[in-house]
């Protein structure tokens, strides 16, 4: 009754109050269904509390919502568990739906096929990673079948609040949320970005911050490119010199670095809390100069190469004709698999120009079997295509021409695809000729170009069902700091996120551009060093 009285009083007061500064549809990625109700705005008040279903993972989402709201509002925002779904509260997170069991959260790991997340549930109660967000004067209620769905709903709620919600210190603000109903679910189960920590090394804090940016836009995978010619970035107990010797270099001659098992676990845990799955990549058989430096026995001539701090590719490789190489591959992949809770293990496979024909396919086929023996699913760059198919394997396509018969044939043999078209999704490409860092071998990628393609119809002779999702790689030959990472990712990352999450029918450049403009003040508040692309009418 007290709740009702408060709601009634608030409604009367709000007749005189200004409308919400954000419209219900002003969300990136665009939700599947939005039904605004301008008479039903909600105002977050000092006494706001979060009520959440009694489930550890849901409770953690509620805790993160409270952490999001406290700094800017200065409100205490207590969190209480309630078993009764009907309890009215100010902010309610309800775990309920077609698959509210513990196994349901596993479906969010994207091991399911692309079509599995669609159509598995009633339209207004999406399963999997979907959610339903209902804003009325009395409450904001998010309902989802999994904690991942609740988490994505919380990201939507965050964007519906005024941009000053991103302030790290209290702001005097009317914390209004636009009224109405959003029903939402992802188009593709795999939505990600890659960070190359090999060309330049980035410490744990930088990686965690990148995970924050992914989570904000409902991206659910972070691929770490952990090894390359210029550095080996993950400690391996059975081959310790990989990190201590192979990790001590980077492009340009800087100090390099590597993650201990504890560092890596910290990244895994931080990501998991944000419903982001880590995808570790050990690039084989090429891109291995740092490994050869540490263990010359792996080199074809058994001679240690010079440390490499340049930016050429394609010159190094582990010896595919030596059995010791396969001990190395099994030991490394075994340790990395054991550290990684997610289902994926990426074995690279790109640009091994000096391992040709059957030497290459033979090596890859053995490496694929080694991955399968760890219980993980093989991911590799699309150069893997000519090697024999292995159950479940996923190819990451980075071409610039959508007519790729070799990849189409691999798909017919059963491969699924992650799409990273070089000329749309390679965020190491410059925005414009005067962009101070970055490449241009795949062309310039302004925000519009990063947005203007359809993952469901990009590759000739590849059906949409074979597309697991999309990923934006950030190679770091020219990227040396967190500020430069943010400059290259933002504002293009939200464009990729919308292609990955939103239904095809929602894609609309003009609408996207206008919604994106509202994110500038949010990033400013959060201290994010984004690129003020001239294409966007920044607010
Ligand atoms: C190609 S794409 C590479 C990387 C480079 C990148 C630079 C791919 C699988 N390999 O080794 O860093 O181009 O854009």
From TrEMBL:
Entry annotation: catalytic residues: 351
EC number: 3.2.1.52
Catalytic reaction(s) noted: Hydrolysis of terminal non-reducing N-acetyl-D-hexosamine residues in N-acetyl-beta-D-hexosaminides
Superkingdom, natural source: Bacteria
Keywords assigned: Glycosidase, Hydrolase
One Gene Ontology CC term in the entry: membrane
Annotated InterPro entries: Beta_hexosaminidase_sua/sub, GH, Glyco_hydro_20_cat, Hex-like_dom2, HEX_bac_N
Every Beta-hexosaminidase bacterial type N-terminal domain range: 26-184
Protein name: beta-N-acetylhexosaminidase
Domain Glycoside hydrolase family 20 catalytic: 188-354, 361-503
Similarity field: Belongs to the glycosyl hydrolase 20 family.
PANTHER family in alphabetical order: BETA-HEXOSAMINIDASE, BETA-N-ACETYLHEXOSAMINIDASE
GO annotation, biological process: carbohydrate metabolic process; glycosaminoglycan metabolic process
GO molecular function: beta-N-acetylhexosaminidase activity
């Amino acid at each position: 009754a007290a709740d009702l009285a408060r709601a009634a009083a608030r409604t009367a007061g709000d007749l005189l109050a200004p409308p919400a500064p954000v419209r219900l549809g002003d969300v990136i990625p665009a939700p599947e269904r939005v039904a605004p109700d301008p008479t039903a705005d909600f105002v977050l008040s000092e006494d706001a509390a979060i009520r959440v279903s009694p489930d550890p993972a849901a409770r953690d989402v509620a805790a993160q919502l409270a952490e999001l709201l406290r700094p800017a509002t200065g409100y205490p925002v207590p969190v209480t568990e309630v078993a009764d779904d009907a309890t009215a509260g100010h902010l309610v997170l309800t775990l309920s739906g077609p698959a509210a069991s513990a196994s349901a959260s596993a479906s969010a790991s994207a091991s399911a096929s692309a079509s599995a997340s669609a159509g598995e549930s009633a339209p207004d109660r999406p399963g999997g990673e979907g959610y339903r967000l209902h804003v009325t004067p009395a409450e904001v209620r998010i309902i989802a079948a999994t904690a991942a769905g609740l988490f994505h709903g919380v990201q939507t709620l965050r964007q519906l609040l005024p941009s000053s919600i991103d302030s790290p210190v209290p702001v005097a603000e009317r914390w209004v949320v636009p009224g109405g109903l959003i029903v939402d679910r992802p188009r593709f189960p795999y939505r990600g970005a890659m960070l190359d920590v090999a060309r330049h090394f980035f410490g744990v804090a930088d990686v965690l911050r990148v995970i924050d940016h992914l989570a904000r836009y409902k991206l659910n995978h972070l691929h770490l490119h952990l090894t390359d010619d210029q550095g080996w970035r993950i400690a391996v107990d059975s081959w310790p010199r990989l990190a201590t010797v192979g990790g001590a270099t980077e492009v340009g001659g800087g100090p390099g670095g590597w993650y201990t098992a504890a560092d890596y676990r910290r990244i895994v845990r931080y990501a998991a809390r944000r419903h982001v799955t880590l995808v570790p990549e050990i690039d084989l058989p090429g891109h291995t100069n740092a490994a050869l430096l540490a263990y010359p026995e792996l080199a074809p001539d058994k001679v240690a190469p010079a440390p490499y701090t340049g930016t050429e590719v394609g010159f190094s490789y582990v010896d595919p004709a030596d059995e010791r190489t396969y001990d190395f591959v099994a030991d490394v992949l075994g340790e990395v698999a054991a550290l990684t809770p997610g289902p994926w293990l990426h074995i690279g496979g790109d640009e091994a120009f000096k391992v040709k024909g059957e030497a290459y396919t033979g090596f890859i086929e053995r490496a694929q079997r080694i991955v399968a023996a760890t219980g993980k699913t093989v991911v590799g760059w699309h150069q893997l295509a000519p090697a024999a198919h292995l159950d479940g394997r996923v190819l990451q396509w980075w071409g610039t021409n959508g007519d790729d018969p070799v990849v189409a044939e691999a798909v017919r043999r059963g491969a699924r695809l992650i799409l990273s078209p070089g000329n749309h999704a390679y965020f190491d490409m410059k925005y414009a000729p005067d962009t101070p860092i970055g490449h241009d071998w795949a062309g310039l990628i302004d925000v519009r170009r990063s947005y203007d393609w359809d993952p469901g119809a990009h590759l000739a002779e590849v059906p949409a069902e074979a597309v697991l999702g999309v990923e934006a790689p950030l190679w770091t030959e020219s990227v040396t700091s967190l500020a430069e990472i943010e400059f290259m990712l933002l504002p293009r990352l939200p464009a990729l996120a919308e292609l990955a999450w939103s239904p095809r029918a929602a894609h609309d450049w003009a609408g996207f551009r206008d919604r994106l403009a509202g994110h500038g003040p949010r990033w400013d508040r959060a201290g994010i060093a984004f690129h003020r692309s001239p294409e966007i009418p920044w607010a």
